[in-house]
């Protein structure tokens, strides 16, 4: 019986790995949904998301998110090993401080929320694989289409329409920076009514925003 259970567990694990690898290839051309979106659908909660290509998202938002979330995005292989080695882990599990945009995308698309050594152990190699298969522009495109920007508001297009009543392609730099300040706690933060903490974060993003030209080259249109 123990051997049968072990065999079934191994087959299940291999099946999950194979499915993940196949989905990674499929998502090169098909826009995925996120696990939080699936969770809301399964529990009868609303989901608002309109997937758009990166070309239909304001470069200001791309730059603001890059500046706020992962300024080494173009130079790492999906995992920022320098930050990962320096981050201090708390009792709740690995800190988000070392989480790259690629790792956040992998978590949103394939894994589950919360801090966990098990999740991080899966997230790291999968992020390297995703970085190789998708490349930088596709990874950012998927991230901006699955990130949550409010209760049930997913993706840049839905966020821009919900918070600023305009398309994501029409966001001004000031609006893009305010959206970036809501990450990673979009449920508790309103970009139209920024708190003192959000205004301080917006100031830091604004200070670095204009100096990103030498770092953001991988996301420029081909």
Question: What are the SSEs and their pairings?
Answer:
Elements: H1 2-26, H2 35-42, H3 59-69, H4 81-86, H5 101-110, H6 117-146, H7 156-164, H8 173-181, H9 196-209
Helix pairs in contact: 3-8, 3-9, 5-6, 8-9
CATH architecture of the largest domain: Orthogonal Bundle
- In CATH, the homologous superfamily of the largest domain goes by the name Biosynthetic peptidoglycan transglycosylase-like
Overall 3D form: globular
Main sheet overview: none
H and E order: HHHHHHHHH
CATH class of the largest domain: Mainly Alpha
Membrane topology: Single-pass membrane protein
Family: Belongs to the glycosyltransferase 51 family.
Function: Peptidoglycan polymerase that catalyzes glycan chain elongation from lipid-linked precursors.
Organism: Methylobacterium brachythecii
Give a brief rundown of this model.
Residues 45-204 form the Glycosyl transferase family domain. The protein contains nine helices and no strands. With 222 residues, the protein is an all-alpha fold.
List keywords for this structure.
2 domains, globular, 222 residues, Penicillin binding protein transpeptidase fold, Lysozyme-like_dom_sf, cell shape, Glyco_trans_51, single chain, cell inner membrane, 55% helix, transmembrane helix, mainly alpha, 9 helices
Structure description:
By secondary structure, the protein is an all-alpha fold. It has two domains: 30 residues; 189 residues, Orthogonal Bundle (Penicillin binding protein transpeptidase fold). It has nine helices and no strands. Helix 3 runs parallel beside helix 8, helix 3 packs across helix 9 and helix 5 crosses helix 6. The chain is globular, with a radius of gyration of 18 Å. Peptidoglycan polymerase that catalyzes glycan chain elongation from lipid-linked precursors. Belongs to the glycosyltransferase 51 family. Pathway: Cell wall biogenesis; peptidoglycan biosynthesis. Keywords: Cell inner membrane, Cell membrane, Cell shape, Cell wall biogenesis/degradation, Glycosyltransferase, Membrane, Peptidoglycan synthesis, Transferase, Transmembrane, Transmembrane helix.
């Amino acid at each position: 019986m123990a051997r049968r259970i072990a065999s079934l567990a191994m087959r299940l694990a291999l099946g999950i790995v194979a499915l993940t690898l196949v989905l990674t290839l499929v998502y090169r051309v098909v826009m995925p949904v996120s696990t939080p979106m699936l969770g809301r659908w399964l529990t009868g909660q609303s989901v608002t998301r309109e997937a758009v290509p990166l070309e239909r998202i304001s470069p200001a938002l791309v730059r603001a998110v890059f500046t706020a979330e992962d300024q080494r995005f173009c130079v790492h292989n999906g995992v920022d090993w320098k930050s990962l080695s320096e981050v201090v882990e708390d009792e709740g599990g690995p800190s988000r401080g070392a989480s790259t945009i690629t790792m956040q995308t992998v978590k949103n698309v394939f894994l589950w929320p919360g801090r966990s050594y098990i999740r991080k152990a899966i997230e790291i190699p999968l992020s390297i694989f995703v970085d190789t298969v998708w490349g930088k522009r596709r990874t950012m495109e998927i991230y901006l289409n699955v990130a949550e920007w409010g209760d049930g508001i997913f993706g840049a297009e839905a966020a821009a329409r919900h918070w600023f009543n305009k398309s994501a392609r029409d966001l001004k730099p000031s609006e893009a920076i305010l959206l970036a300040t809501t990450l990673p706690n979009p449920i508790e933060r309103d970009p139209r009514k920024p708190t003192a903490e959000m205004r301080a974060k917006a100031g830091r993003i604004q200070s670095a925003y204009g100096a990103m030209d030498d770092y953001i080259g991988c996301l420029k249109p081909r």
